[in-house]
Each structure stands twice: as C-alpha cells, then as structure tokens.
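Recall from the previous chapter that SMILES is a line notation for molecules. Here it describes zinc ion.
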Amino acid sequence: MQLALVNEKKLEAFPKGRGFCPICGAEAIAKCGPRVMHHWAHLRKRNCDPWWENETPWHREWKNRFPLECREVSHVAEDGEIHRADIKTPTGIVIEVQHSSMTDAERISREEFYKNLVWVIDGSVFKDNFDIYHMLPDPRSELAQDLVWSKAKRHMHGANTGIFFRLSEAVEEYPEVTKSTLRGGRIHGIYDIEEEVTESYNGYHQYDWVRPRKTWLDANCPVYIDFGDEYLVKLEIYDESSLKCIRLVSKLKFVHDAMTESDAKNIATRFYPINKGQP
Ligand SMILES: [Zn+2]
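With both inputs in hand, we obtain:
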C-alpha cells in the first residue's frame, strides 16, 4: 500500500517508517529499498484486504493524479465488510485501477460493494489486440440518428474505414424498421459524409478488440482503458443498433470530472472549461 497511518495521519512510506494499516490496524513497516517502489507492508501477516492487488508503478501513477486524501480510502458496507478503494473522490466516486484480469464474479462483487464506481484498466498488455478505427459522429447529433453503421472488425477492410445504411432509406421500403431491426439496404461509405462526421466528432470511434477480456464488456460500471496515451479509451454502446464503440476522453478531463461530478456515470458527459495550468 502507498499510505499508512502514522500518528493518525495517512503518510507515504519513509525510510525506517513504522505505522498502522488503515484497514485492520495492524503494524505496518515502510519498504524503501533503492530498487523498490516505496510502499508499506504489514509487519506480520499478509495483506488484510483480499481484493488488494500488488501495486505496480502504473497503479501508483494513477493514485498520484489525485490528492493524497483521496488515495487508498477505506470503505465500509452496511454489514461491516471493509475494503480499501484505490481512489475515492470528495464527491463520492470510487475509482478502481485494475492491472490484472478479473473474473465476472470478482468484478460484480466490487461493483455491488462500491456502487458509484468507475474502472480504469491497464491496457498495455492487450494493446496489440485492440484496434481503433474511423470516427463516428456524436451519437446525439442529428446526423447520427439516420445512420446505422456496420461493425468494424480486424481484416474487414470495408467496415474498418466506415460503411453505413440510412434509416430514412430503409423506412421507405419497410415503414416499421428501426435502428435495432435494420439489417441491410443501400450501402454508403463514410467518404460521402466525411465533413459532416468531422464536424460533429466528439471522441467516438469504431473499434475491434480481438480476444477481449469479456468481463469489461459486461461491466455495469463505466470502464476506461489506459493504453499509456494522453487519452483514455472508454467502452460504450453507440446507439439502439447496439453497436459497440469507444470514446476517447482526455485523462485531464477524466480526473477533473471525477473530482467534480457526483455520479460515476456522468464523468465526461458535460463540458467544463479546464484550466490546464492547474494540477
Ligand atoms: Zn491491514
């Protein structure tokens, strides 16, 4: 863990430091060797929180984007179950930064425990299996209401560059048709509407995740993947056609909104001017 209680204050590990685990109260000892990331460990027993994942520099980097009092915050359920959230913001949003893969059962138990939760997943290990394709117009734009996109897939060169059907054309033939039932029609290419798409672009793209970690596609809480860029990749469903899409959200925006919004689902849904000069 990054923080332990020393004289009732949460502190980072310092050489020869002694403190107490904020969860179980047991003695903790600072590990500050020259080749290890400075951290605290329990003096006697193993880690008390079964959900705790060994910290990597990536975990640490994420925690450090938030003020110290937001990191490693104990969270107690009504029945007394206690866990340590990686990050909990002053507005009550819990952020779990997850490096290892997870079973459905593990994911679900954490979603039910924290409820107002958002996942940040380390994508560096599956980066080569994740392709990001053409831009999509903002799903709320007028343009998007008429378009039904063909799902992009690795090696499917048409769909990868952007092909779609128009609902307005399909309705002429089948008046009952909706986005969710439309299965075919006249094929259009994105090059016909490139300018309009660019104009209403708001970070949405098609993608293909080869051999996906399925639990993240089924998650009930928002999932953002960190591939090490300045943008996070948020998993989303585009529209009533159930098209899976991603949205690029800058890390700066994500952190700002997590500190400001009170519902995890509202992160990156509203525009705020961000003062880049501030941490
Ligand atoms: Zn403990």
